[in-house]
Design a protein that fits this description.
mainly alpha; 0% strand; 2 domains; 506 residues; 21 helices
Length: 506
């Protein structure tokens, strides 16, 4: 088995590769969608994505639980338990896949009523695309057990290659079908083929890995039901978080218009995609962290977390303030049309996504350390707050209230729970906490100054070269103002400099 350092590096490589693929799917191909697909139909399709995600609430997080449990079992040399976890997870995912397939076929009957579709929208094409995507989603649900098991077995290279192959096939098929007149169906067929290849590839690879590591799959009724009890927490958490994350577009489509769905989604999509770039680091660390936890090596876990959070705050903050300053220009150049939702909402979206991303990374660390029940419980509580906020604030403030509901529900729950839980595991001292607060304060001060100047003067940007030039100016000024006051950033830059000098100029 590869070292944990090697596994983490391969995980990072493939997670960043997936981010690039996400940029292609979420940004580069979108202008083709808007060219070949009617805007109202595309907005309705985005809203059906929310409906489809609701169907997946029956998936209680099998892959994540398997990754944590199998990885910890391998770290503790408990191969017999690892085999029981894997088989139990496969059986659960198989049942979930069938439920999604049946449920999706049933729900498709009510899609026109749920979205309150107008007669101008091609309902037949929308429903055909939805049903094809339901089949693809059932493959995705089945794959979670196999992907999670492979990750728990520290199989970063194999699952990464499978993911890249399936994603590239999906992109090529999507573009080919778009240019050959399939319209909305091109997205559906690409989803089906991509998820099918991903699922089958991981099934084959898992059986290779368990044979290679001499792990025998076995079934124990008592073990199966004990393992399944974990999902009583994760299941209700998945339901609640799914509602939180996928109700806004449906509400906008029903009570405002499908066109407004497109504006909201496209305004926040570049932010969400690139924010995922920083989020991938903690995801890549989860399997090695669980393995370290199995060994009881909390000192090394603390070192990893402190370095991660120092780098994360800078990288994520830089991107968020960049979007506050440049998102309007990016959308204009990218889509060629006026789909920007406005600076006030853009700023609110940026703040919300930053807070959500921060606590998401905190939750990944606590999850990897075994806090599955706590993560699930706080997710349920957050959802309760969200329902209250979205009803009250949405009623009085409309779309502003809907966006603000996500931020306030997170502040009321996750932002205090995860730091406290991490502190109970890793025991931070006052100096470490002070340094973290200092970094965020400096970053915020510098970011507000630069973004305020750009938003106020509002430079005219008409092409990619001008946008690139403005981005470089933003980056240069940000670095000049921030780096001299950030010791952690200076330390990281010196470390990178030494690595480059030793490797290439020694």
């Amino acid at each position: 088995m590869r070292s944990r350092r090697s596994i983490a590096k391969w995980n990072l490589f493939f997670h960043y590769s997936s981010t690039i693929i996400g940029i292609i799917n979420g940004l580069a191909i979108v202008p083709f969608y808007l060219k070949f697909i009617d805007h109202a139909l595309f907005g309705a399709w985005l809203a059906t994505g929310n409906v489809l995600v609701w169907l997946t609430i029956v998936e209680p997080g099998v892959g994540d639980v398997l990754q944590q449990r199998v990885s910890a079992a391998i770290g503790g040399n408990e191969n017999e338990n690892a085999g029981k976890f894997i088989l139990s997870g496969i059986l659960i995912s198989l049942c979930i896949s069938l439920l999604v397939l049946i449920g999706g076929s049933f729900v498709s009957i009510f899609i026109p009523d749920i979205l309150n579709l107008s007669n101008s929208i091609d309902t037949k094409m929308l429903l055909d695309a939805f049903l094809i995507t339901v089949i693809g989603t059932s493959f995705s649900m089945l794959s979670y057990a196999f992907v999670g098991s492979n990750q728990g077995l520290q199989s970063s290279l194999g699952i990464g290659i499978i993911y890249l192959i399936s994603s590239i096939i999906g992109i090529i098929l999507n573009v080919y079908l778009l240019f050959n007149g399939y319209g909305l169906l091109s997205i559906a067929y690409a989803t089906l083929i991509r998820n099918g290849v991903l699922c089958i590839g991981n099934i084959i690879y898992l059986f290779y890995r368990i044979k290679f590591q001499n792990i025998h799959l076995s079934f124990s009724k008592v073990f199966f039901f004990d393992f399944s009890k974990l999902f009583s927490y994760t299941f209700f958490s998945k339901i609640s978080t799914t509602v939180v994350g996928n109700v806004d577009l449906i509400l906008v489509a029903r009570f405002v218009s499908p066109e407004m769905v497109t504006m909201l989604e496209l305004t926040r999509r570049p932010i969400k995609i690139l924010q995922g770039f920083t989020d991938r680091v903690s995801v890549a660390f989860m399997a090695p962290l669980s393995n370290l936890k199995g060994e009881g090596n909390y000192t090394r876990i603390k070192e990893i977390f402190i370095r991660f959070i120092n780098v994360y705050v800078v990288a994520s903050g830089f991107m968020i303030f960049g979007f506050v300053s440049l998102n309007e220009h990016l959308l204009k150049v990218w889509t060629g049309s006026n789909v920007f939702i406005g600076n006030p909402l853009n700023i609110l979206l940026c703040i919300t996504l930053f807070i959500s991303s921060l606590v998401y990374n905190f939750s990944n660390f606590t999850y990897a350390l075994g806090d599955i029940k706590g993560n699930s419980t706080i997710g349920i509580i957050k959802s309760g707050f969200y329902i209250i906020f979205i009803v009250v604030l949405g009623y009085f403030w409309g779309i502003y209230g809907i966006v603000l509901a996500t931020l306030l529900s997170s502040l009321a729950t996750e932002t205090w729970y995860y730091p406290n839980k991490l502190n109970s595991f890793l025991k931070f001292d006052k100096v470490e906490i002070k340094n973290f607060i200092k970094e965020i304060s400096i970053l915020t001060f510098v970011g507000i100054i630069i973004s305020s100047i750009i938003v106020f003067y509002h430079p005219k940007i008409s092409n990619w070269w001008e946008l690139f030039a403005l981005s470089m100016i933003f980056s240069f000024v940000f670095a000049i103002l921030f780096v001299p006051f950030s010791r952690n950033t200076q330390k990281e830059l010196i470390g990178i400099y030494k690595i480059v000098m030793n490797r290439f100029f020694k």
